[in-house]
Design brief:
The chain has helices at 2-14, 34-51, 124-136, 141-149, 197-204; strands at 20-24, 28-30, 75-79, 91-93, 96-97, 100-101, 105-110, 119-123, 154-158, 162-166, 169-170, 184-185, 189-190. By secondary structure, the chain is an alpha+beta fold.
Length: 213
């Protein structure tokens, strides 16, 4: 994973000069209402950037921005599996999805203690600093990026907007890096996602969640 990420950062972002990029895992899933969720997340992100978390680390800006998420961030952690308690300055929101109210989301400056890299966004400048950081730090990639966030401007959301989908079938296929039990899942599931885009797609195709990856 580290080698693939370094290649992506170097050739797809830095050398190509992309202004930003969203990196997601191949088993990522999200709510069918992701577009509206991201619009609200962008609003909360700009609020945090304007408020500032620490004058020495977080440069506040009230000028027009080039991105709907503002320009004062290095990494947006959209998909994770563990976070520290949200600080007092966390922004919150809930959403209406197909007549159901989703659970409250917390948007906050991430300064370490994070894990899992289901999805995250970077910009051109942070891709360059992260590239150097990952080459110098000997740790699992998600822990290394969590440490990176202790020194740079990262914003996280919990519960995650993009998660890891577990397909129908054997639990053995759930992870390639950790041991799993030998159980069986009748229907695919994505934690913290109210209406899975994958399951919605499968239902429209007539599979009704029976796809087993």
């Amino acid at each position: 994973m580290r080698r693939h990420l370094l290649t992506c950062l170097n050739y797809r972002v830095v050398e190509a000069g992309w202004s930003s990029a969203l990196i997601i895992e191949d088993d990522a899933d999200w709510d069918v209402a992701l577009k509206s969720q991201l619009q609200t997340f962008a609003n909360r992100t700009r609020t945090l950037s304007n408020a500032g978390r620490n004058e020495s680390l977080w440069i506040t800006s009230r000028t027009p921005t080039h991105s709907p998420y503002g320009d004062d961030w290095d990494l947006l952690w959209l998909g994770n599996c563990a976070v520290p308690p949200a600080p007092d300055n966390a922004q919150t929101f809930t959403g209406e999805d197909q007549g159901e109210t989703s659970e409250m989301h917390f948007v906050f400056p991430a300064q370490g203690g994070m894990s899992c890299l289901y999805a995250y966004a970077i910009n051109y400048k942070s891709a360059r600093t992260l590239l150097g950081w990952l080459m110098d730090v000997d740790a699992p990639t998600d822990f290394a990026i969590s440490n990176y966030c202790g020194h740079f401007r990262c914003i996280a959301i919990w519960p995650e907007l993009i998660g890891s989908h577990k397909p129908a079938g054997s639990h053995v296929k759930d992870s390639s890096i950790s041991d799993t039990d030998s159980g069986w899942r009748e229907k695919g599931v994505t934690r913290n996602v109210l209406h899975s885009a994958i399951l919605d797609m499968l239902e429209q195709m007539g599979h009704r969640g029976e796809w087993n990856g």
